[in-house]
Amino acid sequence: MNEPVLVMAFNRPDHLAVLIDRLREVRPARVFLAVDGARDGRADEAARVQACRDLAAAFDWDCELETLFQPSNLGCGQGVSTAISWFFGRVERGIILEDDIIPHPSFFGFCTELLDRYADDSRVFAISGCNFVPRSAQTHPDNAYRFSQVPHIWGWATWRRSWAQHRLDIAGWRHQLPPGRLWARAGHSVPGSLYWASTFELLARKEVDTWDGQLVLATMVSGQLTATSNVNLIENIGFGELATHTVEDRDELQPIEPIRLPTSDVPVALDSRADAWTRRHHFRATWRGMAGQADRYLRQRKGRQA
Q1: 3-state DSSP of 253-278
Q2: Model pTM?
Q3: CATH of 1-99, one of 3.40.50.80, 1.25.40.420, 3.30.160.20, 1.10.3720.10
Q4: I need a labelling partner for 162 at 20 to 30 A (CA). Which of 119, 193, 219, 291 fits?
């Protein structure tokens, strides 16, 4: 498998070992391993981080391996974005996996095929193998994939040209995405628009340490779409107390299954029906969901101030 693969890890060597075992099945020729540094004052974390670094030796097939080991902790936002920028400083395109994302073997061929197909198509931002949406909510479920406004990043691939649009600091996001454009990108949904506006504002204020919301902003500003598999190609094994954000497993992913390759060409057009399902059920961008989000935010803010 000749597509370059970026693997990002931190303090969960058990998860990383499972991912490496899966990669061994497809034997990518170029692998990039990025491991963030340990946080101060966390008992045993330095040992777990070192165990992840030591797993570089487990890439034991014939491959070119490059590593990026941070001497101190950068955190979720800076750590991940730095690793991806390092990756695209060396390759024009590739597959990106965090340590808890275990793809089906057919995911790799799917990414390679679509990276080839849309390499010069500026309408396409990325490719994702992560699917939450049941067939009944997809406009064309017999197609191998559809197009979404949101790039789901549990198993994805993209090009340097797309990543170049990502900015971790989005302090001026309202000038980039005025209300009319936000309304259109959010599916002409009031709670959807409020959900993304509040998300972007929290990120702009640096109240949440992450990087993927900024990726959504980049696609909304540009209007580009993400090719998303209509079957789910990944398993997320990372839910739990060591997770940075995905502490609770809401069992949202569709059952994992292979994708038939090669795929037939699909028109580059938004599947607004599938995106509406994702907005309501995954992001919970409904009036009830927004009330719950506001309540959680106020309780968390009160806890920080206490």
Answers
A1: CCCECCCCCCCCCCCCCECHHHHHHH
A2: 0.91
A3: 3.40.50.80
A4: 193
